[in-house]
Structure formats: C-alpha cells, structure tokens
Amino acid sequence: MSSTPRVRRSLSDIQYDYDHGKKDELEALILAWKGIKDLPASHPNSFFSIGGLHGEPFRGKGKTDAKWWGGYCQHGTVLFPSWHRAYLWRLEEALRSIPGCSNVTLPFWDECSEHSRENGLPSALTQESFVINGQKIDNPLRSFVFPQAITDELPVTPDNPIIYSKPEGYETVRYPLSGLVGTDADRAATALHNDQFKDPKKNTTYLNENVSTWLSGKIKIGGKWRGEVFSRFENCLDAPDYTLFSNTTSAGAKNKADPTGAHHVSLEEPHNFMHLAVGGFDYPNAGDSSAIPGANGDMGENETAGLDPVFFFHHCFIDYVFWTWQRRQGATDEFSIDPTDPGAGYKDAQPPAGDAGRDPDAILGLDTSLDPFVKADGKAFTTRDCINIEKQLGYVYGKGSLDAYAQPAKQLLFKAEAVQSAGKTLRVSRINRAKIRGSFLISAYAEVDGKREYLGTQPVLSRWHVEGCMNCQTHLEATATFKLPLNADNSAIEDSSIEVQVQTRDKVLKRPKTADLLSTGNAVADTPFQLETY
Predict the structure, then answer these.
(1) Chain mean pLDDT for the chain
(2) Are strands 499-503 and 508-511 parallel, antiparallel or unpaired?
C-alpha cells in the first residue's frame, strides 16, 4: 500500500474540471469503468461479477429458498456500513487493474451538495456518450447491459407472483422506466409503460427532477422547515455509538423501546431514500400516488441495485458519511458493536447471506467475515480490518458537503440549532412486508396550524421475495416512527388529524384520519396497520 493515500473526490468536482478543460481524471474513470464492463462475465474483476455480489445472480441456499438471502449484501444489520465499505474497495481495486488506470479512484456522488439538491445527478452519470481520444463511446456510468441472463429460481407464491429473471442483453433502467421482465405479464406491462418514455433526454430530466425533489423536499422539525433527506444525514451523525448509527434495525428498536426519548436516525435510513428516488418512487409530499406509476428501476430493490453503476457512486457517498461520523465521534481507529442488539443478528433483520448461508443464530461483530471479500494475504475481511480508511485501506475523501460536521468541536453549534420544543411521537406498526411486492414508503400527514402538512417518510428498501424468508418467520412487520410537530402556539396537534399512507409499487394503502388512535396500552385494533401516539 502506498504511503500516500489516494483521494476519492466528489464526482461533481471532477465533472466541473472536465467541463472546464481538465479532462484527464474523468476520462480515466470512464475508461476504467469501460474496462471492467468489457471483461468476460466470469472474470473476477468484471462488473457483472462484482456488481452481482450484492444480490442477483443468487447463489447458495438463497438461490432456491427464500428463507436465505442469495446475495452477499448486509442490510438491517450492524455490518451494513462496513460490508459496503469493503465492497467499494473491491470495485475500486478492479477499476485500478485496467491498464492505464492505476491511479483511478472511485468518486462519490455528493447527495447533500447544493448542486445535487438543485440539479439531481451529476451529468457524468446520465449523459449518453463521451468522446475520448477522438473516439465516441457509450457512457459506461449510465447503465449496464447484462452479458448473460440472471434466472430467478425462488418459489412463486399467490401473494408474491414475481419472477425476477432478466435476460441476456437486458439494460438496467432508472426512474421513470420499468425493468420488470420476468413473466409474460410483466413484460407486457413494462413494454406498455416504457413506451410512454422513449426520449432519453426527457427521461433524464424526469429522473433529475425526482431526485432533486427528494433532496430538496422539506418537513417541519422543531418549528423549522428542514430538508428531509439532508436532515436525516445530518441527524445520523449524532448517533452516540456505531451500533445505533449502523442500521435501521438497531435504531428502530431503540426508538420503539423509548418512544418519548431522543429519536435516533441510522445511516441506512437516508441511504434508503436515495435508492428509491433513483429506482422509482416519487416524493410523497402531496400525499398522492406516484405521478408515474409503474416505474421499477433497478436501484429500487436489493436484487439488482448493485448492477446499476450509480449504486457505487451513491454508496461511496454513504461511506463518506460513515467516515464523517467516525471523525465527529472520535471513532477513526476503533468502535464497538453491542452483541445484544437486534441489529447484531439476523432474526430481526435480513435473511442469512452468503454462499452457504450464515447461521441464522449468528452474532455479528467486529470479527465477522465480510463475505466474500478477502485481503491481500488471502484472509477474510472483517469490520475490524476496515475501520480506518486511511491507515488500513489507503484512501481518504476530498471536499464534501458534510465536512463541517466532522469536527467534534462543532457538535454543540449544530445541536443548539435543533433544540426546540417537540410534540408527541407517532408509531406506525403492523405493516406486513410479506404482503407487499418490493420496496415501499411509509408517509405521515396531519393538520398543523389549520393546514394539512406532510410530516415525513420512512423508506423501506426491500426485496421482491419476502414471504418465508428466515428473518420474516419472526419479523414480517415493518414499522416507522415520526416525531410530531407542535402548532405555532406550542399546542399539540390533534390525533384525529393524523393520516398515514403506505405507498407500494402497486398502490397506496391509507389509514384515514381517525379519532380513535391508540394510546399506549390500549387494545389492538383490527386495521390494515396500526397507529399509536405517545
């Protein structure tokens, strides 16, 4: 490893340099990506091989049994940040293996930057082609054409008749397009849907507008209007320990156990927002169903998210936020994992992952292998091996939008702005994930100061095959927690004005405004999902 760490810069900064005549860095990145995409599918450094480690094509027990996860990715567990850190490192090493590209690093899409909030994705991720050395080439960052088919062998159920197969030659899609092509019915519906969106430039405009709306959409927090996704990234940086910071299972369990206490936000929560913004959900501010129903982009579910190049630029930003949290909390060299936390196991999170499938009762910790990644000495990567990115992995991050939050001395400044009177807490539960195809949104609304207001959304990044999975035998339920604002006179909003919507790929499920919200300790009502205030 070089004594001088390589620098992962913001893709927008690299794009700016390119647009102003300094083309070398972006052109090298494009050639590196083209190189790994051109490798044979079976090559260990090919994009098909590496992109497919996240989910599809499934392997091991998860190939035919939904009780197991056929991909390697970790979601809803304490390994979420570290597994994806190792994943990015593996992809970056592949990029650097392409002749002439040994100095390439993986940039991050700075999702909290002003540029992203106003414009959406950097154009390097969406433009159709580049001219390099006098030759016009298709942009390798825009999509990926499968060099071979992926075949979904999981059993079909009446509640989830999805077959998530994709043929050789399939090209990944983003909002507003659909990529469901596993059955005759899906292919017909997808063809009908995509026929409405034949202009690539207009589709890029739709995508950027949707991403920009997600990033700039606002909710009221502590009496002030704050950017919803930005505030989630901001709030996760104040997680007091790695376990709560790392995943939605741990943060959700803590919020459930102490609903009137501090509301904890994990890194995984705002991460989920951006998957769904690119993968096919509209911002739910108006409380209506999708403006473009039927959008099913590959980033929207875990099965094929890793096969869209934008995944890695998104996750590079997530790793930047992870490192920012480490710097803010003084955890650049060590942190701990609570072995008793529900996020330190599979029962309340995702199914066991990997080739053979992990022990469903395994306790996940600093020394758990981050399959399938191995170090230079051939030993398995663990979280302990990738805590300090500079000393252990040989890279650092360039200038980013959250740099000010990395300084521990500034914690009180940022916290002081958020100290405001708070209202009650709303908890939404009894949402059966097995009955919902794919990812979904849980959104809340209420009357504040005499006007119906949007209170926020909890994104659930899910899979198409959920029913029967190992964790779902005991944890089919999805939940969400919202801190309710106060009226301008500091009075509590009326429970009877609260409305919750669950926006799925197929429809919007509503729990109408009602006067009989459950308070703590009341009997469970027979409703599609349950609302409680504390």
Answers:
(1) 84
(2) antiparallel
What are the angstrom distances between the C-alpha of 310 and each of 107, 291, 435? 11, 23, 29
**CA-closest candidate to residue 28, choices 128, 130, 110, 144:** 130
- The kind and range of the H/E element at 316 are helix 310-328
Give ∠ CA 440-287-478 in degrees, rounded to 5.
30
- SS3 of 518, please? strand
Could you write out the three-class secondary structure of 432-498? EHHHCCCCEEEEEEEEECCEEEEEEEEEECCCCCCCCCCHHHCCCEEEEEEECCECCCCCECCHHHC
Q: How far is CA 333 from the centre of its chain?
A: 25
H or E segment at 204? helix 200-216
Q: Residue 82's closest CA among 392, 460, 377, 310?
A: 392
Distance CA 306, CA 308 (A): 6
Per-residue model confidence as pLDDT tens digits over 60-99: 666 666 666 678 889 999 999 999 999 999 999 999 999 9
Q: Write the DSSP symbol of residue 219.
A: E
The pairing of strands 451-460 and 440-448 is: antiparallel
Give long-range contacts, CB 8 A cutoff, 24+ apart: 43-49. 45/93, 45/94, 45/97, 46/94, 46/147, 47/94, 47/144, 47/307, 47/309, 48/144, 48/146, 48/147, 48/148, 48/307
Q: Which residue has the tokens 């030759």?
A: 135
3-state SS class at 181? coil
Helix axes 268-279, 248-257, angle to 10 degrees: 120
Quickly count: other Cβ atoms within 10 Å of residue 237's Cβ: 22
Residue 397, classed as helix, strand or coil, is strand
Strand residues in 368-424 grouped as ranges (E): 369-374, 380-382, 395-397
Exposure string for 457-466, b = 16+ CB within 10 A, e = fewer: bbbbbbbbbb
CB of 214 within 8 A of CB of 200? no
Question: What pTM does this model have?
Answer: 0.86
CA 173 to chain centre: 17
Cα–Cα distance, 138 to 37 (Å, whole number): 12
pLDDT single digits (tens) 434-455: 667 677 888 888 888 888 888 8
2.60.40, 2.40.70, 2.160.10, 2.30.30: CATH of 425-533 = 2.60.40
User: Are 515 and 416 spatial neighbours (Cβ–Cβ below 8 Å)?
Assistant: no
CA nearest neighbour of 183 among 437, 472, 353, 467: 437
Return the structure tokens found at 294. 């039927």
Q: What would the DSSP string read from start to end of 237-295?
A: TT-SSHHHHH-HHHHHHHHHHSTTSPPP--THHHHHHHHHHHHT----TT-PSPSSTT-
335 Cα distance to chain centroid = 23
Where along the chain do its domains lie? 425-533
Task: Yes or no: say if 85 and 389 are a contact pair by the CB < 8 Å rule.
Answer: yes
